[in-house]
Specification:
single chain, binds protoporphyrin IX containing FE
């Protein structure tokens, strides 16, 4: 049973999640294009948004880049420049700093979304759900750091990266790399894949469009009388 679960969650579930993300996003963009937005609440309540959202976004975008490069760069490609042990320490340090930024930012965003009436009134179920799921995922990610500290040779990191690389290149046997890993890594990966799965049903779709113009906008909405 344990072996079946391992194969399911780390060998099959990744494809279900990624496929749902791609097909679901294409369908949503096609069927309901005006729902494709970040759903800004700046107009309703500003306090805490600038600092909370900025800390969160900077932290999460750098974590995203770190995960992408860290998990998908093959061992042979970085070996001439940096040892696995050094890379593990780099991941823990950079991930720890960016993760802490995201943690502070998210705490402010969650406080704002749960205590400010105007924001709460326009918060949909999925807005709150995705914020909390991302928060749990972030905490699980931060909890992997002490676990990684037990394998400073980078052996755990190599196994996890092999898993990710086998998945994205459609090679068999990916799940076997995870079997012996600590529970916190497993939970972090399964919840991460679940975020991919529900992606099209949340406001997360805004990240594909990277609405950077929001950063420069004046903050006032111009309303003109008709004719
Ligand atoms: C690609 C770059 C990105 C840009 C330019 C961007 C921009 C924005 C903007 C403008 C908002 C609305 C803030 C407001 O209320 O005015 C927002 C909200 C949000 N973004 Fe992003 N985003 C990006 C990437 C991401 C990523 C990678 C994630 C998570 C994985 C994310 C998660 C969220 C969440 C959860 C909210 C809602 C926060 C709240 O509850 O108030 N964003 N984003
Ligand atoms: C499918 C999506 C994801 C996968 C497969 C994944 C996988 C991993 C793995 C394997 C590690 C351990 C790296 C190591 O030390 O060897 C890790 C660490 C971490 N993850 Fe994720 N992750 C995902 C999404 C996320 C998200 C969305 C967040 C933030 C909300 C996040 C935050 C962190 C943090 C803070 C760490 C610890 C520092 C680091 O090593 O970078 N992860 N993740």
């Amino acid at each position: 049973m344990a072996e079946y679960m391992n194969t399911f969650f780390f060998g099959i579930y990744p494809y279900i999640a990624i496929l749902t993300m791609i097909v679901g996003s294409v369908l949503r963009y096609d069927q309901d294009p005006y729902s494709w937005k970040a759903d800004s609440s700046q107009l309703l309540h500003r306090k805490g948004l600038r600092v909370g959202s900025n800390l969160f976004h900077v932290g999460i975008l750098l974590l995203f880049a770190g995960h992408f490069v860290g998990l998908l760069t093959p061992h042979w490609a970085y070996e001439p420049f940096i040892t696995a042990g050094q890379k593990q320490i780099l991941a823990m340090t950079a991930g720890g700093i960016f993760g802490s930024m995201a943690f502070i930012g998210m705490t402010i965003l969650i406080w704002r979304r749960t205590t400010q009436d105007r924001v709460r009134a326009t918060t949909k179920f999925m807005d709150m759900a995705i914020l909390l799921i991302l928060f749990v995922q972030l905490v699980l990610g931060l909890l992997t750091i002490p676990q990684s500290a037990k394998h400073l040779d980078g052996s755990s990191m190599i196994a996890l990266a092999e898993w990710a690389q086998h998945i994205v290149t459609f090679r068999g046997g990916a799940a076997e790399f995870i079997t012996e890993e600590a529970l916190v890594f497993k939970l972090h990966i399964v919840l991460g894949l679940t975020i991919f799965l529900i992606f099209p049903f949340t406001r997360l779709v805004h990240m594909v469009s990277a609405p950077y113009k929001y950063i420069l906008r004046s903050g006032y909405q111009i309303v003109r009388k008709r004719g």
